[in-house]
Amino acid sequence: MLDTHTVENQSTPFENVNLFACDAALQEALLRAAPAASADLLELGARLGRAETLALGALANDNAPRLINFDRYGRRIDEVQFHPAWHELMALMTGAGIHAPASGAGAHSARAAAFMLFAQVENGAQCPLTMTYASVATLQLAPSIAAQWVPKILARSYDRRSLPIGQKHGALLGMGMTEKQGGSDVRSNTTLAQRVTPNPFALPAGEAGDDGDLYRIVGHKWFFSAPQCDAHLILAQTDACSSAGLSCFFVPRFLPDGSRNAIRVMRLKDKLGNRSNASAEVEFDGAFGWRIGAVGRGVAAILEMGNRTRLDCVLGSAGTMRAALTHALHHARGRRAFGRPLAAHALMQNVLADLALESEAATAFSMRLAQCYDRPDDALEAALARLLTPAGKYWICKRGPAFGAEAMEVLGGNGYVEEAPLARLYREFPVNSIWEGSGNIMCLDLLRALQRTPHALSALRAELEAARACGSAADRTVFTAYAAQLLDDLIETGGGTDGEAEYGARRLAGRIVLAVQGALLLRHAPDHVASAFIASRLAAGVGGAFGHLPSGIDCDAILRRALAVQALNL
Ligand SMILES: Cc1cc2nc3c(=O)[nH]c(=O)nc-3n(C[C@H](O)[C@H](O)[C@H](O)COP(=O)(O)OP(=O)(O)OC[C@H]3O[C@@H](n4cnc5c(N)ncnc54)[C@H](O)[C@@H]3O)c2cc1C
Question: Which of the pair, 120 or 197, is modelled with greater confidence?
């Protein structure tokens, strides 16, 4: 029998590569921020780039979690059942310390680099790990709870068992704020917490006072990701007319007497992406919760978490961009059309180089932002973190969906098919822009930061001025004019919080991020990268699509730098 055809001119999967070794921008950023971590990252990059590790991401998403409300005898259990690939991913990530705030010089930067590498494998499993990482800052407000829980959180071991915390060697935390009637406007929360006296549990209630007061909670959460976590931090009212304001509560899955807390998981969301991760709707049917922080100070307490989770949204989007870029570029080098590799066509070079610039700028920005978190005692660094976290969460996450669509198109029809990872990556992008404060909320937060953070403007000015003497004369001229106009506008308006300031807040956030990205590339990237970024983003203004680079750009050099693959020795 004759063959119908031979399979020719199809590209190969992008796998069995060292994800760190092929990423010059990330390596250089890590050398600046946490040089001692390079060897670990190199090892991690090799592990994550293996075909079998990359396959876990697809498996965990193709086999979404299932809610099991009752055991076979009809007892309420509210357990979530995951595919083994999910557990492998969780074990891999907790083993690398993604869930635990590390200490020591450069620890946040090293974690950020690892987080961006993991984002190239799977995004859903990053959700509970991010929440756990972020929760520690809030838990510290309740020393007696922290004393029992933080050591288990910091342990680099994944314990998937549903058991009371005393019997576990690792713990994960989630958070619940969003209710049906309002997510951004959490003040509309109606979930009610009523004080319980006397406290029936010996632990972890502790003494009376701000740390450890026990309440019973009745109400719901409309989004409650990772309900399998060992505990959640939630917001609730302490009086029915909301006059005291929201308070923060620590709600464990199991109570100190070993029984299950009354958190009813009603259903799991059927989501566009992030399908490996269980995002639940829950009801609190008189669940026990320990108040963290003062009555009415819940938003302030949980915001301690918010900045960290927003940082991870930025890191996650930058990492996912990098994944989409590498798959696209690898494909374009391996597939020919009209007699040449796709990557050799001038117009495709424009698209790919534009994507590479966006990805490198996102990486540089993300690593710089993480570095600010390594220096909390430096007033300028802390102010910069306060400013750039919402601005970056808005801009970098907002660029993601357009980036993902363009990268998918580089693969043509193959990109749109589920077997290639591009479809999954594309579905992953929007969530970072929505959760943890949607785009507009981030821009309003940026205005608040500009108004209320001492040194915010000085910190931004110092960051931009550091690039004043870098790059070619022509690039410096464009950059200096862009930065000066931005700073002048900020001085004039001071950010502002009126309707006009709000109206322009997205544009302002974008300009701030572009200016910082321009400064970072001028200081640290090769001239051909910095020049291309400045010509296409600062001089010309960001267009709606990719592939709009002006003439005179060295696309070849940009693409060589973007992906220099060394196959793994398997
Ligand atoms: C997959 C997934 C998992 C999630 N997991 C969790 C979780 O674990 N815990 C949790 O608490 N929440 C979770 N969320 C909820 C998420 O944080 C909220 O959806 C988000 O904060 C937006 O709130 P909302 O859906 O109520 O939208 P709304 O608050 O109704 O906002 C709708 C739109 O209006 C805009 N908007 C709101 N106010 C203003 C304003 N003043 N000016 C201009 N624009 C405005 C917003 O930016 C948004 O674009 C999750 C969401 C998703 C998608």
Answer: 120
* Structural domain that includes position 138: 24-150
Provide the pLDDT confidence category of residue 202 given band limits of 50, 70 and 90: low
Helix (H) or strand (E) holding 81: strand 76-81
Q: Please, is 491 exposed, middle or buried when counting C-beta atoms within 10 Å of its C-beta (0-12, 13-18, 19+)?
A: exposed
What residues flank ligand 1, with Cβ below 6 Å?
174-178, 182-185, 223-225, 271, 274, 279, 431, 434-441
In a domain, 12, yes or no: no
CA of 184 to the centre of ligand 1 (A): 5
User: What amino acid is encoded at 17 in this protein?
Assistant: V
Name the least confident of 179-183, 431-435, 459-463, 565-569.
565-569
The CATH number for 254's domain is: 2.40.110.20
Ligand 1: which atom is nearest the Cα of residue 431?
Answer: 53
pLDDT above 80 (res 75)? yes
Task: Answer with the one of 296, 329, 362 that is the final residue of a domain.
Answer: 296
Q: Which tokens sit at 487?
A: 């700073």
Contact by Cβ (8 Å): 172, 98: no
Mark whether 178 and 144 lie in a shared domain.
no
Examine residue 382 and state whether it is found in any structural domain, yes or no: no
Residue 207, pLDDT score: 43
